[in-house]
Amino acid sequence: MATYPRRGRRHPLAAIALLLIGLFASGGAYALFTGTATAADTVPPAAQVENGKALFAANCASCHGLSAEGTAAGPSLVGVGALAVEFQVGTGRMPMAGSGPQAEKKPVQFAQDEIDAMAAWVATLAPGPGLPDNRFLSGGNESNGAELFRVNCAMCHNVAGAGGALTEGKFAPNLHDIDPVHIYAAMVTGPQNMPVFSDMNITPEEKRDIIAYLKWMDENGSVGGLDLGALGPVSEGLFVWIFALGGLVAITIWLTAKSN
Amino acid sequence: MAESGKKVALKGSSAVERSGRIDNPGFEPAHQRVHDVNPDKAASAERGISLLFLLSGLLSVTAFVLYFLFPIVPGDLWTVRISTLLVGVAIAASLLTLGVGVVHWAKTLMHGHELVEERHETRGDEPTRARAVEIFQEANAESGWTRRRLLRNSLITALVAFPVPAIALFRDLAPAADPVEALKHTIWRAGTRLARDPSGTPIKASEITIGSAVHVIPENLDTYEETFLNEKAKAAVLLMRLDPADLNISEERKDWSYDGIVAYSKICTHVGCPVALYEQQTHHLLCPCHQSQFDVSNECAVIFGPAARPLPQLPISVDAEGYLVAQSDFLEPVGPSFWERNQ
Amino acid sequence: MTVATKSKPARQSSGTGMRFVGGVANYLDERTSISTAVKALGRKIFPDHWSFMLGEIALYSFVIILLSGTFLTLFYDPSMTEVHYDGSYVPLKGIHMSAAYSSTLNITFDIRGGLLMRQVHHWAALLFVAAIGLHMLRVFFTGAFRKPREINWVVGFLLFIMAMAEGFTGYSLPDDLLSGNGLRIIDGMIKAVPGAGLWISYLLFGGEFPGDDVIPRLYMLHIMLLPAIVIALIAVHLVLLIVNKHTQFAGPGRTEENVVGSPILAVFAAKAGGFFFLVFGVTMLIASLVTINPIWSYGPYDPSPVSAGTQPDWYIGFADGMLRLIPSGWEFEVLGGTLSLNLIVPIVVLMVFLGLVAFYPFFEAWVTGDKREHHIAERPRNAPTRTAIGAAGVAFYAVLWAAASSDLIATHFRTTIEGVILTLQILLIVGPFIAFWLTKKMALALQRKDREVVLHGYESSRIVRLPGGEYREIHTPLDDFEKWRLVSFDEFEPIVLRPNDRGRITLSARAKASVSKFYFEDRIAPVTKPELESASQH
Question: Which residue does chain B place closest to C250, by CA atoms?
């Protein structure tokens, strides 16, 4: 299983602060959706967009093209929306470190205002999903979230969110201690090989429930003790052979050794 | 090895016995333990061991007390963790101290010298064996087992027939209905709407964006109260929307999809796990149980893993209100193969 | 020589304790003749070696399983009736599930000590099968299955199979998502059996999968039928152990005609009894510190979802791995039926593998034609071909086992599932041969080294200069006891093919001769007295 350098848990207010920045960035008014996703219609401050365009040209254009039209090395970003930028850059997946089966989570390369600037610029190219309303990021129903998670997510990410293998070296990452906005963004934008779970398929309220379940797991830990990576019977089997039986064999050696 | 002794093979065997083998030197001098020679050490071991026993008793009582000191508060998982941990560790410690104490006693203070017991051949000695044969002969003579062949053979016939009713008694483990028919059909019918799992809300074609994967059940699944899981186990479907340009559709299936939206049985044709790991860029479906892979762009043909058949496709279309509906049931049995599936 | 062949008279004690015991013993003896049993068994000798304790680990974990399992039956409800969960575990509140799953959640979260007992039960179950496996390996590699113990090997083998069956039925009882998908896999395998499979599945599940009957039926098997069989087999296993007496390793004074060790009363009983508490203690410690089978995160069984990393418990892993290693497309239409070779081949291969394990003692007895009783456990190096065959079997099993976690291997070692599977497919064929060859080479090399050491002593790493200017390393000779450990092993040679009484060489004689050659062509003979004498003259 992949182990990632974990970002420190954000302050509870961080998500709100992030959103305020996002709101500010998009001119403070993006559609307050009722079942449909966000799309920043209003024009963000020109200075921020310009800054984003410059950052993009310097850091992303070599693969995605100067106007994000896509090249052989990277897909077009026209219409992916601000949320995709927040996910890809905000989790450190972009810029990609090198060629591999998939872009992996790593330390974030940009400050939040830089990410916001690039997101603002990408959002001007064509309409696309924007940052979600704060009310969809916390306070959901864990048990509904858990059921939705089992049906829609567990086959790749494992019921305990421990992650799992995909084809040809790709993998579905571990979902512990992920910023709610990134969980939300992953569902809406379907990064890389993850399917898209649009708001018409899984509603924003349902996404909130899924986030609530993941956060519940983060907060409650493993009730039975060490979770051995939550990998199921394989790690349990290895544990029993190495530690239980290994320990008992050590005891048998002591037991049958002659006392001095 | 010119110096080796003379060899004799045992009759009918690969085993070889050789003269000139080195002789068994007999027992080693007995090992003296420090506790055997030093009474002070023995006394201190005795004190240590009894301390372990007392500690073990104390720990058992501690576990008893901890059980009450740390009750479970419903809804608070932390209390479950604490109760499990404290009671468990206290019991474990009491068991381990007890075990260590007993073993230590055996190793240090009990009689330490090895004893010898003679072995005898496992078979009975000759008189015993002779007597056993004699008993069988007497019993045979007294009962007439070999002499009265008719009696014996008819008894054997009766005993062979004896379990036959038991075989029949197990028939009603399963209902009378024919399993082959049951497995060939699901509850999908022409016009059944495709609905989301688990909510059961029907799905409009317009709601499915390219790259989506939706887990689907028949809209009327809820009406099957008694056999809900049985029906779901056959009818579960995965709905995906691809760019129509990415789909290679054969002539006979060209009406089975709607604008790049395709529906396939979610039940693996290998052993029936739900195949649900959809990669939206490669269009591969992966089964997490045995890693069979299916190519959605090529009618779910098997591209890797132990599965042998493509996933069955559910023909779909759109009804007047824009909802996705099935055109019919699956045209072949879903799930793992069985001998009668094509009959 | 202080080894006593007869037990010393017990110390006389006239204390109240002794008189009380005497009274009770007298009462019992007059009604049960228990003194006969004490006389026969009380001073039976058990040899001391750590590897002789492995079966005890299995026995004690079974006792732990019985104790914890009895606790669990008091709260578990083996029913597939649908209920709404209303217990303490928040993420499942209000969810539809079977009464079986709901009661398992209640044991976990609402019964004090319930989670502990569940974890004790499951860890002890994993330990039970693992200890049986290790015990079998010990018996195999020391040749302790040879006459007169072939039947007890088969009894032990049956216990291994029963333990797996117990494990699998127990794994299924919580009716959670993981075990439900496990049952579905079993259902798929059963259905592949031509002709009968569909009906077996139909009868087992009481209709279509999953139905409402399978959990109560598995529960009956798990807590009644299978444990009864296990207990009966354990009884037979132990009776035969007493009849045959335990094997011992070669050592000074030890012969085929004696057994050297501690008497049951009191040293062996104390060690074995103490060891029970140690096994229990270790299991309890692990159960209180480490989660096993967190059924709450799997959720109730539902045929639609599945979790990444769906695997069986370790002892079923080899079968799951076999399924994963079959290449695509092994299914054919034959005589109007569907022949699923992708499932039939694994089933047959596993049955053949288990069959070879079960019948190996009889095969080796046929090869060697050796009718003698063997009570000295062989050192694995002294039976190179058997040891190599065992290593090949272990390699085969290990590859299958690894295959059951192909997805986790891929994610952990940052490689592809496809690459892992392909590698394991190749290893499954090649691995056993490599293991055989390497092991045999190693065993023969170790035997050669033993010879060297017996003849010339240990290399002391002290170099001395002889008067003639020659340098030589001083070798420390072995004492007679050490020598005996290295030279006292049985010798075998290939059978010489000879015509039988009617002047013919039968096919079976030829087969036996060639297998015999395969076994014993490469061999190292034990050092003999003449060799030792000539070596010491140098």
Answer: B24
* Cross-chain Cβ contact C314/A167 below 8 Å: no
C42-C43-C44 Cα angle (round to 5): 100
Q: Are A142 and C90 in contact (CB < 8 Å)?
A: yes
Contact C91 A255 (CB under 8 A): no
Q: Is C464 helix (H, G, I), strand (E, B) or coil?
A: strand
In a domain, C428, yes or no: no
Question: Omega before C174 cis (within 30°)?
Answer: no
C-alpha–C-alpha distance, residues B288 and A156, integer Å: 8
CA distance to partner chain C, nearest, from residue A249 (Å): 7
Same domain, C454 and C517: yes
* Same domain, residue pair C79 and C157: yes
| Residue C149 resides in a domain | yes
Closest in B77, B196, B293 to A167, CB measured: B293
- A-chain residues within 8 Å CB-CB of C113? none
Supply the DSSP symbol for B277.
E
- Number of domains observed in the structure of chain C: 3
First to last CA, chain B: 71
For chain A, list the domains and their CATH numbers: 46-123 (1.10.760.10), 134-222 (1.10.760.10)
- Chain B (80-139) residues lying within 8 Å, Cβ to Cβ, of chain A: 80-81, 84-85, 103, 107-108, 112
- Assess whether C525 and C454 both reside in one domain: yes
Query: Domain ends where: C332, C361, C378?
Result: C378
- Is the pTM higher than 0.80? The answer reads yes
In a domain, C286, yes or no: yes
Q: What angle do CA C188, C192, C197 make, to 5 degrees?
A: 95
| Domains of chain B and CATH, by start | 16-171 (no CATH), 179-340 (2.102.10.10)
Q: Using alpha carbons only, give the angle B3, B4, B7 rounded to the nearest 5 degrees.
A: 140
The length of chain A is 260
Number of Cβ pairs < 8 A linking chain B and chain C: 417
C412 touches chain A (CB under 8 A): yes
Domain-terminating residue out of C334, C356, C378: C378
Which residue from C51, C304, C314 is facing A233, i.e. has the nearest CB? Answer: C314
Per-residue pLDDT of chain C (538 residues), as tens digits, is 344 444 444 455 556 777 777 888 899 999 999 999 999 999 999 999 999 999 999 999 999 999 999 999 999 999 999 999 999 999 999 999 999 999 999 999 999 999 999 999 999 999 999 999 999 999 999 999 999 999 999 999 999 999 999 999 999 999 999 999 999 999 999 999 998 999 999 999 999 999 999 999 999 999 999 999 999 999 999 999 999 999 999 999 999 999 999 999 989 999 999 999 999 999 999 999 999 999 999 999 999 999 998 899 999 999 999 999 999 999 999 888 999 999 999 999 999 999 999 999 999 999 999 999 999 999 999 999 999 999 999 999 999 999 999 999 999 999 999 999 999 999 999 999 999 999 999 999 999 999 999 998 888 888 888 888 888 888 888 888 999 999 999 999 998 888 878 888 888 889 999 999 999 999 999 998 888 888 877 6
C294 has a chain B CB within 8 A of its CB: no
Which residues face B17 on adjacent strands?
B8
CA of B43 vs chain A CAs: smallest distance (Å) = 15
Sign of the C-alpha dihedral computed for residues C165, C170, C171 and C177 taken in this order: positive
Using the 8-state DSSP alphabet, how is residue B299 labeled?
T
Structural domain includes residue C385: no
Q: Domain residues for C513?
A: 440-537
In this structure, the answer to whether residues C459 and C496 fall within a common structural domain is yes
Residues C28 and C52 in one domain: no
My answer on whether C17 and C55 are in the same domain is no
